[in-house]
């Protein structure tokens, strides 16, 4: 059947876009392959969308994978109610701009019981608002596959995780009984109630993400770029002091400085870094000489080594 | 989105992006495809330490990760460095037992190239995890403890790596600091390994005397302690290694999904698994055998004038043909094999082993179908020879099997194409992946024997046939025979039909 797409293959119009180098091209191809495979094999996939840079890349790849069609599954944002305000505004714009199906979930129990990072501590807060909230949302939607933007270079237990990460009906990950995953052949067979978390960005590093964002010109929440912002220092972290719910502790003062974020999450739990990098080139330049990892700013990972594995066993992404 | 909107979207895309622009050379960094490698060898030979050292010396380990490491290991080695293995052994069970259980994937880069490295377990019971790491690797770094030399496990891993299609090997004679950097010891182990490699048909070997712990001949050279070694460091070898490509073989596109965003558009989405394609090419859809021509190759960025192996594309054909997920679109002049019976080698990955006569799911590319895998022989990893074995193929065993399908299957030999020649077996009860396999050949059956060798077709009472097959003479040549069970009515029909042909 003839298609209605235009006949343009014989001339290549000039452009300013830099082509992907073979390294990024290989990563992109792999991610698109995974997207298509999951979309074809599972009945009800969903894409976890956390508004951060990895999610932004994930979404971009999903749009590429299904072009010229729409993204054939909804995006799910498990909100905690404590995200940076700029993230929510950005998210709403993106959903509209790209004509996406969108679901937001906030754990109703956590909300009713007024669970906050200040009153319950970062570990319990994350447990209820993120892990439990995610489980609720996946169960409610009856999703049998969920895409996530996790990368193996983020953390030691992630480095061991498969691209199709099998989960029990209780959403548990059993690191000792992972299905072997050979070549690029993925086993998507599950029973009712079981599910798979699929990670198209498994083989990307933080530098790859940033370089891809640069070449593909992917829009990001402005918090990733340095700007004069108010913050307080707490437990060795620079916490953004914009939300009125942040109460100053004795001895704390609001300071001002040029800061940015390497990862985005809940504002009370995500530390900024001092930086002068106001655009992508400068962010990448800083990154290439960075001596600490991106997760360093996250309270959740600092509790103990192996804390991520524990959370994942309980159903966290 | 409406159809015309789709068309417009495609147009605007093509209007802004070019296929192969003469871009100013981007940064020299990572301008080639990443090299995938595995480390393998026996327990404690230093695999995890070596990767830790690679990550450390290429600055892939950040300060906070190092601090966590120091805190976790509690101890430091005599060089004041943390226990590198903890960088890799990320699971709690691994840390508790001090061993590697599952594959870990790690990433590092030099100025010249980026690398994906799989750290594989050395224990025999986790051989399957080693096979998993080997399936995608282009190069294997085989470690040997300089004090002990080659072990059975070294042989096992070298064999599996070469079976899984790895052609480039680095023999890392490790812990060289513990043998006083003795050159004779190096020569002796290297010589031993070359004999093993020869028996496996591996020709590309680089042997390096090394101390993973001290970082000698890993990223930095070891001239201070072994001035006699003039060869490359490990990283130099890795930077120059080649990445396998399936671009020289016939065009293959396993169809993952059919894209139908509007009534008048139909595109076939998948990743090119071999060769290349351009508009105007004639293709065949397998297994159906229908023929069509390519009109367009679509990607998000542009409508392209060619696609090569590795590209994730959407293909548009010039006519309405029946194509669905699991089909393969291939070049008309270089087609894969289509048939019901194939020979393969496989690694059994689960405790139940591979059971003769049992029906499994086979997945290859995007195609999933029912199959039985009957073991024929098993590789003795101690001696490297194949011994006949028609019973169960146990976990971690490597066997030759006969695959029999209910419906036509489509394969290339793994030697020719590492994607369209590879498959996994899935247990229909547990849904677990129970084997990884590689196609060696299509089995000739009575109907499509092409050889001129004389054959005899016999029709025997079943009990007599069973007695004949139980004899040693028969079982030794079982590979050369073709067997079908049927009713005597069906058999007499075949002989009647054959009589007409003659
Ligand atoms: N002296 C010395 N010890 C080493 C060297 N490489 C590894 N080791 C030690 O050998 C032990 C086993 O290393 P590990 O990396 O866990 O081995 P794996 O089981 O192959 O992953 C550890 O105690 C290492 O510190 C080396 O080059 N020299
Ligand atoms: Mg190890």
Structural account:
- The complex is a heterodimer of chains A (317) and B (502).
- Chain A has 317 residues and is an alpha/beta fold.
- Chain A contains 9 helices and 10 strands.
- In chain A, the strands form 2 sheets. A 6-stranded mixed beta sheet of chain A has the order 3-2-1-4-6-5, with helices on both faces.
- The longest helix of chain A has 25 residues.
- The N terminus of chain A is likely disordered.
- At the A-B interface, helix 1 and helix 2 of A face helix 1, helix 3, helix 5, strand 2 and helix 6 of B.
- Bound molecules: guanosine-5'-diphosphate (GDP) and magnesium ion (MG).
- The site of guanosine-5'-diphosphate has 17 residues of chain B, from helix 2.
- The site of magnesium ion has 4 residues of chain B, from helix 2.
The CATH class of the largest domain in chain A, by name, is Alpha Beta
Q: Which percent range fits the helix content of chain A?
A: 25-40%
Distance between the termini of chain A: 42 Å
Question: What is the 3D form of chain A?
Answer: globular
Low-confidence parts of chain A: 1-15, 300-304
- The biggest beta sheet of chain B, please? 8 strands, antiparallel
Return Rg of chain B in Å.
27 Å
Q: What ranges of chain B have pLDDT less than 50 throughout 5 or more consecutive residues?
A: 1-29
β-strand percent of chain A reads 5-15%
Percent of residues in β-strands of chain B: 25-35%
Name the features.
heterodimer, A: 317 residues, alpha/beta, Rossmann fold, 2 domains, 6-stranded mixed β-sheet, 4-stranded antiparallel β-sheet, 9 helices, 10 strands, 14% strand, globular, B: 502 residues, alpha+beta, Elongation Factor Tu (Ef-tu), domain 3, 4 domains, 8-stranded antiparallel β-sheet, disordered N terminus, binds guanosine-5'-diphosphate, binds magnesium ion
């Amino acid at each position: 059947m003839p298609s209605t797409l235009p006949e343009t293959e014989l001339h290549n119009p000039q452009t300013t876009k830099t082509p992907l180098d073979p390294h990024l091209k290989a990563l992109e191809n792999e991610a698109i392959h995974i997207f298509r495979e999951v979309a074809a094999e599972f009945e009800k996939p969903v894409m976890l969308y956390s508004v951060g840079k990895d999610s932004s890349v994930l979404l971009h790849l999903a749009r590429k994978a299904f072009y010229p069609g729409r993204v054939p599954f909804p995006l799910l944002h498990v909100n905690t109610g404590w995200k940076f305000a700029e993230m929510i505004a950005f998210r709403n714009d993106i959903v509209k701009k790209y004509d996406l199906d969108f679901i937001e979930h906030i754990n109703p129990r956590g909300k009713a019981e007024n669970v906050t990072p200040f009153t319950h501590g970062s570990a319990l807060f994350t447990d209820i608002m993120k892990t439990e909230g995610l489980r609720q949302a996946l169960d409610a939607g009856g999703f049998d596959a969920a895409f996530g933007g996790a990368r193996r270079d983020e953390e030691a237990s992630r480095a061991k995780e498969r691209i199709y990460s099998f989960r029990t009906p209780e959403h548990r990950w059993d690191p000792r009984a992972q299905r072997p995953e050979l070549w690029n052949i993925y086993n998507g067979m599950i029973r009712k109630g079981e599910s798979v978390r699929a990670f198209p960005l498994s083989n990307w590093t933080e530098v790859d993400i940033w370089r891809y964002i640069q070449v593909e010109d992917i829009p990001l929440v402005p918090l990733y770029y340095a700007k004069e912002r108010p913050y307080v220092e707490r437990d060795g972290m620079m916490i953004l002091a914009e939300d009125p719910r942040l109460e100053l502790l004795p001895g704390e003062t609001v300071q001002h400085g040029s800061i940015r974020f390497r990862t985005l999450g809940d504002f009370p739990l995500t530390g900024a870094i001092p930086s002068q990098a106001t655009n992508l080139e400068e962010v990448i330049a800083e990154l290439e000489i960075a001596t600490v990892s991106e997760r360093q700013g996250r309270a959740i990972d600092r509790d103990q080594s192996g804390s991520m594995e524990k959370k994942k066993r309980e159903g966290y992404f | 989105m409406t159809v015309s909107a789709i068309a417009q979207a495609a147009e605007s895309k093509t209007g802004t992006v070019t296929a192969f622009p003469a871009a100013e050379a981007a940064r020299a960094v990572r301008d080639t495809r990443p090299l995938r490698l595995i480390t393998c060898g026996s327990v404690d030979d230093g695999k995890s330490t070596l990767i830790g050292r690679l990550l450390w010396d290429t600055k892939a380990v950040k300060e906070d990760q190092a601090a966590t490491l120091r805190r976790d290991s509690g101890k430091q080695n005599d060089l004041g460095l943390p226990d590198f293995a903890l960088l890799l052994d990320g699971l709690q069970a691994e840390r508790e037992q001090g061993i590697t259980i599952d594959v870990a994937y790690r990433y590092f880069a030099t100025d010249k190239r980026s690398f994906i490295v799989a750290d594989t377990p050395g224990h025999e019971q986790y051989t399957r995890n080693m096979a998993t790491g080997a399936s995608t690797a282009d190069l294997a770094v085989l470690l040997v403890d300089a004090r002990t030399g080659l072990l059975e496990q070294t042989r096992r891993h070298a064999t599996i790596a070469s079976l899984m299609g790895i052609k480039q090997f680095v023999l890392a004679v490790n812990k060289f600091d513990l043998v006083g950097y003795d050159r004779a010891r190096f020569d002796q182990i290297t010589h031993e390994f070359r004999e093993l490699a020869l028996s496996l048909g591996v020709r590309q070997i680089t042997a390096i005397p090394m101390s993973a712990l001290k970082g000698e001949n890993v990223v930095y050279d070891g001239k201070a302690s072994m001035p006699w070694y003039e060869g490359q460091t490990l990283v130099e070898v890795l930077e120059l290694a080649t990445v396998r490509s399936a671009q020289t073989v016939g065009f293959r596109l396993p169809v993952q999904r059919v894209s139908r965003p509007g009534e008048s558009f139909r595109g076939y989405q998948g990743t090119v698994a071999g060769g290349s394609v351009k508009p105007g090419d004639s293709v065949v859809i397998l297994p159906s055998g229908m023929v069509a021509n390519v009109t367009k190759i679509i990607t998000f960025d542009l409508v392209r004038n060619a696609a090569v192996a590795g590209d994730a594309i959407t293909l548009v054909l010039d006519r309405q043909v029946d194509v669905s997920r699991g089909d393969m679109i291939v070049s008309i002049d270089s087609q894969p094999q289509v048939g019901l019976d194939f020979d393969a080698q496989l690694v059994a990955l689960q405790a139940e082993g591979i059971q003769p006569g049992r029906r499994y799911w086979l997945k290859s590319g995007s195609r999933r179908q029912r199959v039985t895998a009957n073991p024929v022989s098993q590789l003795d990893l101690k001696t490297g020879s194949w011994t006949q074995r028609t019973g169960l193929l146990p976990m971690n065993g490597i066997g030759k099997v006969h695959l029999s399908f209910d419906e036509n299957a489509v394969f290339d030999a793994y030697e020719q194409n590492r994607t369209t020649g590879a498959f996994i077996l899935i247990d229909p009860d547990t849904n677990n992946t129970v084997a990884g396999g590689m196609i060696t050949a299509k089995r000739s059956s009575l109907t499509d024997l092409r050889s001129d060798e004389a054959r005899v077709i016999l029709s025997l009472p079943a009990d007599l046939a069973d007695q004949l097959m139980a004899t040693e003479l028969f079982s030794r040549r079982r590979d050369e025979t073709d067997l079908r069970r049927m009713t005597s009515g069906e058999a007499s029909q075949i002989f009647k039909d054959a009589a007409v042909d003659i």
